[in-house]
């Protein structure tokens, strides 16, 4: 297996969205395709077991409806609009039909229960007939383990930041996650790491430096000149948003070379 394509072109976070084209919408994906950027997406299962492309667990922020995606049928999902526009939530099938191998896809498997493989199982099954470049990733180490065992798709683990604020109730789990301990449980083939964990006001991220010697690193979400510079130090590619396509294009080829000896590898 070789997934060099995942590092050759920057990755548009939820599509190349802007004020006109909302996140995770068909025109945002087409905009990314038009600029030859890989696309990062998120998949959920509806109540009636259809895969849809949407980030949040609930529809409140993006659609103004206080209801979980998993509690809606596909028919109901299709009645909602993205950020007050005319655009609806795409199904995974609609998204794959649009991309059709034109660019690479980085697909995040949603869900937090490591014992619930319903979303990753449905995703892996659907992708058996997809011919384009696609990689999977998840915060859920159970989903990563399932994908590694039941597919030949490149699969990575998402790691959030290691907050220095011990008063934050999420400090303990995010600190553990930031140290890459979960990688020992699920054996990812690449790392997708929160760029905020490498901010200049924090101490040197020795955990990520150590991890990068074993696995290639992508950082998310790069959205400023400061985070571009951070990415150049730690990562071989970026997941980006709120940057012009021209600025992102200028960054191609300027990120860190692989510190790991070969691609793919295993933690």
Question: Would you write up a description of this structure?
Answer:
With 267 residues, the chain is of the alpha/beta class. It is built from twelve helices and nine strands. An eight-stranded parallel β-barrel has the order 1-2-4-5-6-7-8-9, surrounded by six helices. The protein is globular, with a radius of gyration of 18 Å. The protein starts with a helix and ends in a 16-residue tail after the last helix. The model has no long low-confidence stretch (mean pLDDT 94).
What's the alpha carbon Rg, rounded to whole Å? 18 Å
SSE succession = HEHEEHHHEHEHEHHEHEHEH
Strand content: 15-25%
Helix content: 25-40%
Structural class: alpha/beta
Query: How many DSSP H or I helices?
Result: 12
Main β-sheet, in a few words? 8 strands, parallel, barrel
Label the overall shape: globular
Cα end-to-end separation: 16 Å
Uncertain residue segments: none
Give the tally of β-strands.
Answer: 9
* Mean of pLDDT: 94
The main sheet orders its strands as: 1-2-4-5-6-7-8-9
């Amino acid at each position: 297996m070789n997934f060099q394509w995942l590092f050759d072109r920057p990755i548009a976070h939820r599509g190349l969205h802007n004020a006109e084209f909302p996140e995770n919408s068909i025109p945002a994906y087409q905009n990314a395709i038009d600029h030859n950027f890989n696309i990062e997406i998120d998949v959920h299962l509806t109540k009636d077991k259809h895969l849809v492309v949407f980030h949040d667990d609930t529809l409140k922020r993006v659609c103004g409806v206080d209801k979980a995606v998993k509690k809606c049928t596909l028919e109901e999902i299709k009645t909602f609009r993205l950020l007050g526009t005319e655009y609806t939530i795409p199904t995974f099938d609609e998204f794959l039909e649009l991309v059709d191998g034109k660019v690479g896809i980085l697909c995040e498997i949603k869900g937090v229960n490591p014992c619930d493989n319903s979303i990753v199982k449905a995703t892996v099954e659907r992708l058996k007939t997809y011919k384009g470049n696609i990689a999977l990733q998840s915060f859920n180490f159970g989903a990563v383990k399932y994908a590694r065992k039941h597919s030949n798709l490149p699969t990575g683990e998402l790691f959030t930041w290691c907050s220095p604020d011990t008063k934050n109730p999420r400090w303990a789990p995010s600190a553990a996650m930031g140290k890459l301990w979960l990688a020992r449980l699920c054996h990812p083939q690449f790392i997708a790491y929160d760029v905020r964990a490498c901010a200049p006001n924090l101490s040197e991220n020795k955990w990520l430096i150590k991890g990068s010697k074993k696995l290639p690193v992508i950082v998310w979400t790069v959205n400023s000149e400061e985070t571009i510079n951070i990415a150049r130090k730690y990562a071989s590619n970026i997941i980006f948003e709120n940057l012009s396509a021209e600025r992102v294009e200028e960054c191609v080829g300027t990120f860190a070379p692989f510190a790991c000896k070969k691609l793919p590898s295993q933690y």
